[in-house]
Write a structure and sequence with these properties.
- Helices cover 60% and strands 5% of the residues.
- By secondary structure, it is mainly alpha-helical.
- Among the domains are: 54-204, 3-Layer(aba) Sandwich (Rossmann fold), CATH 3.40.50.300; 210-290; 294-366, Arc Repressor Mutant, subunit A (Orthogonal Bundle).
- The strands form three sheets. Strands 2-5-6-1-7 form a five-stranded parallel β-sheet, sandwiched between helices. The chain has a three-stranded antiparallel β-sheet with strand order 8-10-9. It has a two-stranded antiparallel sheet with strand order 3-4.
- It is globular and about 90 Å long.
- 44% of the residues are buried.
Length: 696
C-alpha cells in the first residue's frame, strides 16, 4: 500500500500537501517568502497648475544629490505663512524626485492630529506605520514601541516622508525615517530652529512674485477681462499678496461674476479693505463669503464650530438643522467659492478660513444664539450616531446613558454590518473625541460623559491614547460636575485602562481606588451591582498587569461572587476565564484546567463565538502544561479556525506559536518550523516587529 501511494516530485515546491481524507490541514512551510507589499505613494494627483518655485526646487534637488548619507536622512524644511503653497511645493518636489526613492512616499498632516495646539506624536507615527502596511491590531501601544516599529520598517530604505504643518522640530523629529538614504520634507509656518540631529536644509517659501502670481491667476481663471484690463489684473494680483490660496479664491470669484468689469470687482475689494482695515487676503475671503447664498453663508459660519478638520454632509446637515440634500448643496456652493477643499473623506476647511468663518459668525450672531443651537444639535447628532454604531459593533452591553432622540430633519447613518459601524467610528474619531471637549466647554456635561461610552468600543480596536485619555478625563470631570455616581465610577474605570497600558500604573490605581470607594455608595439594583462587579474586575486587571497575581485572583473571585448572585451569566463566564488565565500564570495547572474547562463550556452554551475561541485557546495552553497534548492540539486547531474566520491575525499568530510548541514536544520539528514560518509571514505582512524588537 505504501508503494501504491508513493509520490515522486521533481523541481521545487514551497508547500507540499499529501492527504487521503482531508480533515484538519497542516501546512509544512519551508522557505516561505512574504508577498511583496505595495509601495506607498501618498501624494494627491498633480496640480493642474504649479507656478515657478524653480529656485526652491533646484536647491532641494542639489541637496538630495549631494547628501552624504552619514546615518541621518536628508531633512528639508519649507517655511512660510499659511496659504503660501508650502504643501503644494512639497508634493511637487516629492513627485519630481520620487524615482530616486523607490521605497515610496509617505505623508502625514500634523494639523489633522492636533488638539488644543498639541500633537500626539504617537498617532502621527501610527499613520506612517499604516502607510507602510501595518494594520491597527499590530500597532505597538506605547509610543516607544511604535517608534521601534517605525525605525525597524524604515531602516535601509529610500523613502520620502512629508510631514505637513509642524510647529516645532520636536513634532517632526520622531517621524524621520531611520535611513540615511531617505528624504524628509517638513512644512511649517515659521523656521524650525530646534532640531537635535543634523541641521536641516532650510528653504523659505516666499510669496509669488507678481509675474508668477499673474500667470497662476490666468491658469486658474481663463477670462478675457484679465488681458483686457491689465491694470485691474495687476491690482487684483497685488491684493492677493502672492498667496496661491488667495489667488485660487480670487480666480473662482472672478469666474462667478463674469458680467462685472474687473475694475469694478477690484474696486469692491479695495473698498472692503478700506472699510474693515484687514489684509487683502481677508478681503478676498470676505468677498467670496458675500457672494454666497443665505444657507451656504450660514453653514460657512457654523463650520467654525465643527471640532474636526473634515466635515461630512450628514454632520453639516446637523449644524444647519436641515436635510442632507440641502447640506450637500451648501457644501458644494462653498467648494465652488473656494472656501472648502474637497477630500475623499469629506470637505476640509483651512485653519485660516476657519478663523475667518468664526469672525463672520460673531458678527452675524453677536449673542451667540444661532451658534449655541447648532452646537447642541451637532453634539446630539454625533452622540446618537456613536451610540447606534456601538450597539451594532459591540452588541448589547452595560451602558448608562440612553441615546438621544433624532435631530429634526437630519437622517441617521445606516449601519448594516458590524464592520460598517466600526469603520464609521474610526473615520469620525477626530469629530467624536472633539465633541467630548466641545460638549464639556459648552456646559453640556451629560453629553460629554455619555459620548465616552461608545468611544470605549472604538478604543479597544484603535488605541489612540492621546485622544482617549483626554476624552475620558473630560468625561470624568463632566460626571463629577453632575455628581452622576454611576458615570463617575464607570468613566474612572475606563480611564484607568489606557493609563496602565501606557504604564502609568499609579495614576490608574488612583482612579480605581476612587471608583471602588464610590461604588460602596451604589444601591442594590441589578445594574448597580453589575457596575460594582465591573469596578472590582478592573482592579483585578490592573493587578494582573502589575504581576500581582494573588491580588488579581482575589478581585476576580469577588467580582464572580457578585455576578453569580445577580444571575449575570456572561459576567460569571468572564470572571471564570480570567481566574483560569491567572491560575495558569501562577503555575497552578490543575486549577487552571478546571476553571478554563468551565469557562469554555459556558461560552459554548451562551453561543458567544469570540469567547468560545478565547477560552478554548487558554484551555488548550493549560492542557498542554498538564501533559494532555492531544486535547490541547484539537482546541488549538479550533481556535486557529476561529481566528481565521474573524480575520484576527494577532490571534492566528498566537495559536500558530502554540501549535509549534506542541509539535516540538512531539518531536515534529518540520511541522513546528512550518507553523513558525507562517507566524513570521503573517507578522511581517501585518508590519509587526521581529522577535526582540517588540515592546513589552
Amino acid at each position: 500500500m505504501a508503494e501504491e501511494t508513493h509520490n515522486s516530485l521533481d523541481g521545487h515546491a514551497d508547500v507540499v500537501v499529501q492527504a487521503r481524507d482531508i480533515g484538519v490541514l497542516h501546512q509544512h512551510l519551508h522557505g516561505v517568502v512574504a508577498p511583496e507589499r505595495p509601495v506607498p505613494f501618498q501624494l494627491p494627483p498633480a496640480l493642474a497648475h504649479f507656478e515657478n518655485r524653480r529656485a526652491e526646487q533646484e536647491r532641494i534637488a542639489r541637496a538630495a544629490e549631494s547628501h552624504a548619507g552619514d546615518g541621518s536622512p536628508l531633512v528639508v524644511t519649507l517655511s512660510g505663512i499659511g496659504g503660501i503653497g508650502k504643501t503644494a511645493l512639497g508634493f511637487h518636489v516629492a513627485r519630481r524626485l520620487s524615482r530616486g526613492y523607490p521605497d515610496g512616499v509617505l505623508y502625514v498632516d500634523l494639523d489633522d492630529l492636533r488638539r488644543d495646539g498639541v500633537v500626539e506624536v504617537a498617532d502621527a507615527v501610527a499613520e506612517l506605520l499604516t502607510g507602510l502596511g501595518v494594520t491597527s491590531e499590530w500597532l505597538e501601544r506605547p509610543f516607544a514601541g511604535r517608534s521601534k516599529q517605525y525605525w525597524s520598517l524604515t531602516r535601509d530604505k529610500r523613502l520620502i516622508v512629508i510631514v505637513d504643518n509642524a510647529r516645532y522640530a520636536a513634532e517632526a523629529e520622531p517621524l524621520l525615517p531611520a535611513s540615511a538614504g531617505s528624504l524628509a520634507i517638513v512644512t511649517s509656518h515659521g523656521a524650525l530652529h530646534d532640531f537635535d540631529g543634523a541641521l536641516p536644509v532650510e528653504v523659505p517659501v516666499n510669496p509669488l512674485v507678481a509675474e508668477d502670481a499673474a500667470r497662476l491667476l490666468a491658469h486658474i481663471v481663463d477670462d478675457h477681462r484679465l488681458p483686457a484690463e491689465p491694470d485691474a489684473t495687476a491690482a487684483l494680483v497685488h491684493g492677493c499678496g502672492g498667496l496661491p490660496a488667495a489667488l485660487k479664491v480670487a480666480g473662482q470669484w472672478v469666474r462667478k461674476y463674469r458680467r462685472r468689469s474687473l475694475s469694478r470687482l477690484v474696486g469692491e475689494l479695495a473698498a472692503e479693505l478700506r472699510e474693515k482695515g484687514i489684509p487683502m487676503v481677508e478681503a478676498v475671503w470676505d468677498a467670496a463669503y458675500a457672494g454666497l447664498g443665505e444657507e451656504a453663508a450660514r453653514l460657512y459660519r457654523l463650520l467654525s464650530l465643527h471640532p474636526a478638520p473634515v466635515v461630512t454632509a450628514p454632520a453639516a446637515a446637523a449644524l444647519l438643522g436641515a436635510g442632507e440634500r440641502r447640506a450637500e448643496d451648501a457644501l458644494e456652493e462653498l467648494e465652488s467659492a473656494g472656501l472648502l477643499e474637497n477630500r475623499t473623506e469629506g470637505c476640509r476647511m483651512h485653519d485660516l478660513l476657519r478663523g475667518h468663518a468664526d469672525r463672520r459668525a460673531r458678527e452675524a450672531d453677536p449673542g451667540g444664539t444661532e451658534r449655541a443651537a447648532a452646537r447642541r444639535a451637532l453634539i446630539r447628532w454625533y452622540r446618537r450616531q456613536a451610540a447606534r454604531a456601538d450597539l451594532m459593533a459591540a452588541g448589547p452591553r452595560m451602558t448608562l446613558a440612553e441615546p438621544p432622540e433624532a435631530v429634526d430633519e437630519v437622517p441617521d447613518i445606516e449601519f448594516s454590518t458590524k464592520a460598517e459601524a466600526l469603520r464609521w467610528l474610526e473615520s469620525q474619531r477626530l469629530a467624536l473625541y472633539g465633541c467630548v471637549r466641545l460638549a464639556f466647554d459648552s456646559g453640556l456635561y451629560e453629553d460629554a460623559w455619555a459620548l465616552c461610552e461608545p468611544l470605549w468600543t472604538h478604543f479597544l480596536d484603535h488605541p489612540h491614547y492621546a485622544d482617549v485619555l483626554d476624552a475620558f478625563a473630560t468625561g470624568v470631570a463632566a460626571a463629577d460636575r453632575l455628581e452622576h455616581l454611576p458615570a463617575m465610577i464607570r468613566l474612572r474605570c475606563q480611564l484607568a485602562r489606557p493609563l496602565w497600558e501606557q504604564r502609568r500604573y499609579d495614576e490608574a490605581a488612583a482612579h480605581l481606588r476612587q471608583a471602588l470607594s464610590a461604588s460602596e455608595s451604589l444601591g442594590a439594583s441589578e445594574q448597580e451591582r453589575k457596575l460594582r462587579a465591573s469596578a472590582v474586575e478592573f482592579s483585578g486587571l490592573l493587578k494582573l498587569a502589575r504581576e500581582d497575581l494573588a491580588g488579581a485572583t482575589a478581585d476576580f473571585e469577588a467580582s464572580l461572587r457578585i455576578h453569580t448572585a445577580i444571575g449575570n451569566a456572561y459576567g460569571v463566564l468572564l470572571q471564570t476565564h480570567l481566574l483560569g488565565r491567572t491560575a495558569l500564570r501562577q503555575g497552578d495547572v490543575g486549577r487552571a484546567v478546571a476553571l478554563l474547562e468551565e469557562a469554555h463550556r459556558m461560552a459554548r452554551e451562551q453561543e458567544r463565538e469570540r469567547m468560545t475561541a478565547r477560552t478554548g485557546f487558554e484551555l488548550g495552553r493549560a492542557l498542554r502544561c498538564a501533559g494532555r497534548a492531544a486535547e490541547a492540539a484539537a482546541l488549538a486547531h479550533a481556535a486557529l479556525e476561529s481566528a481565521r474566520e474573524r480575520g484576527s491575525t494577532t490571534d492566528e499568530v498566537r495559536v500558530l506559536e502554540e501549535l509549534a510548541g506542541l509539535a516540538d514536544e512531539r518531536g515534529a520539528a518540520a511541522e513546528a518550523d512550518g507553523h513558525r514560518a507562517l507566524a513570521r509571514l503573517l507578522t511581517e505582512r501585518a508590519g509587526g516587529l521581529a522577535d526582540g524588537a517588540q515592546s513589552s
